Amino acid sequence: MSYWFHRNPLKATAVQNFDIKMFAHDPEALKILGDLRQSRARVLQLLPDPNHTSEQVTTALNLYLALVRGLLLQPGEGVAASKLCHALTFRWNDSIIEGVTARDDAVFEVASVVMNVAFWFMKHAVLIAVKPEISMDDAKEVHTSLRKAAGLIKFVQDNLSAQLSEQPADGGDLDGRVITAYLNQCTAEAQEVTIARAIELKHNPSLVSALANETSKMFTTAADSLNSLDVRVFGHWKAYFGLKAKFYLAYAHNYQGEALLAQDKCGEAIRSLQESKKMYAEANELAVEYSKTKGRGTQAKPERHTFFKRLLPILDRTLEKCERENGFIYHQKVPYDPVELEMNDKTHGLVSPEPFEIPSVSPLWTPVAYAAFDESKLNKNDKSKSKAEKKAEEEVKPVKEVPIVDPETEHKTESGCVLS
User: Fold this and answer.
1) 240 Cβ partners below 8 Å, 6+ apart?
2) 160: number of CA atoms within 13 Å, CB side?
3) Alpha helix ranges (H) inside 201-310
4) For residues 399 and 412, what is the distance between their CA atoms, to the nearest angstrom?
5) DSSP structure class, residue 402
6) What is the pTM of this model?
7) How far apart are the first and last CA of the chain?
8) Cα 129 to the center of its chain, rounded Å
9) Angle between helices 176-200 and 231-262 (to 10 degrees)
10) N or C: which end of the chain has fewer CB within 10 A?
11) pLDDT tens profile 328-358
């Protein structure tokens, strides 16, 4: 099911040694710096492999954030900015655009780390989804992982973006348009799991139609957020959103047709199913366009997945039944315009990002430890370092990610899920 999802590369970063000068070698301050180095390295060590558990990654993230918060705020109950906020230079690349961004800003560091962990949760969801037989527990883990990813991204959007000391790189991962795209992608993909479950449990067709319609709108919002960015760079990712939006419109109209048929509105049902076939054909065309469009990230192939392929024969059978019954029984006029899709209060906001809260500042950050750092020497070039040492600190190497293998298994159910 990795073919069902598009994933962009993880962010890469330079080594951070946390070399901050002190008035004197205070043991508490030295321990903070050592723990910052170790905890950051641990997070970066875990992220390339989606096989790790979410608990491992969450624990590592929280440990690092508790320590790095001391670079954001002064110790104590107040909210005064720390003198160390701009003490270090952090270097990160981005998931889509080329190049490296360097900022003397701890907020930039926190936002970058949190976004990268969100990307890990997105990839972890794919790892679970590629299993040949997807159990109910697996589906729940995919759903939860995507909601956690959305929660992390929303935290950056709501709490960190406005605090950045400089404007984010145009098209970078902290650009508001890119954040919006990722947020809607995660939320929409989590809702895909909800739709699959609704279909397996044979929920009311009107409910499935409303869910699919809302999911289509989320993918459309994700695509629209990228409109003002370079299509040569973002076109591949945007095409994925476009084909998913069309595909779920096809599902929405199909289940709307089933609901209308159950209400003996055969003429309207036929028109809904005709619109579904049209949307399905457009989704297929967009899948071809997506495969031909160059860009960073994985090559999803949703048109090969069971959930995609099984819609058309179901759609054809239902449409044939409607046309036959309308000819023999109902004799209703088929509307020229498509029947408007309905929204359902029960489905609106059904899937929401899982709220993320940054942990409290580590107790290691005492007033004594904080006072040990020398304000007069903050963010000064260290002339004692060799050129080789400085080069090593500035080098940003691409992340070697552990690949996710998809056997392209044929699933036995319409949704690709097994409820057990």
Assistant:
1) 6, 290, 300
2) 27
3) 205-224, 231-262, 266-292, 306-309
4) 36
5) P
6) 0.92
7) 19
8) 15
9) 30
10) C
11) 887 788 899 999 998 777 666 678 999 999 9
